């Protein structure tokens, strides 16, 4: 799935689940990213980004 298809998929999910319009997800396509919000939390006295992750795709034979 390409970046454009991923953005379209998330925008569609937000539309189908009636995420409030005030969250401005209608702008996600023009911003080129969705979701467009970064969330932070406090942990052990430090401010840390929530949900930060990475992934790797390995080909399996």
Key descriptive features of the protein:
single chain; 2 strands; two-stranded antiparallel ribbon; 61 residues; 30% helix
Task: Describe the protein.
The protein contains 2 helices and 2 strands; from the N terminus they run H-H-E-E. The chain is flat, with a radius of gyration of 15 Å. It has helices at about 5-15, 30, and strands spanning about 40-45, 45-50. The longest helix has 14 residues, at about 5-15. The model has no long low-confidence stretch (mean pLDDT about 75). The protein has a two-stranded antiparallel ribbon. The protein has one domain. Strand 1 and strand 2 (about 45-50) form a beta hairpin. It is α+β, with helices and mostly antiparallel strands.
Summarize the structure.
This protein has 2 helices and 2 strands. It is α+β, with helices and mostly antiparallel strands.
């Amino acid at each position: 799935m390409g970046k454009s298809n991923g953005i379209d998929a998330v925008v569609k999910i937000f539309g189908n689940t009636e995420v409030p319009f005030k969250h401005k997800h209608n702008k996600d396509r023009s911003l080129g990213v969705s979701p467009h919000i970064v969330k932070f939390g406090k942990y052990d006295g430090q401010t840390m980004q929530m949900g930060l992750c990475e992934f790797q795709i390995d080909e399996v034979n």
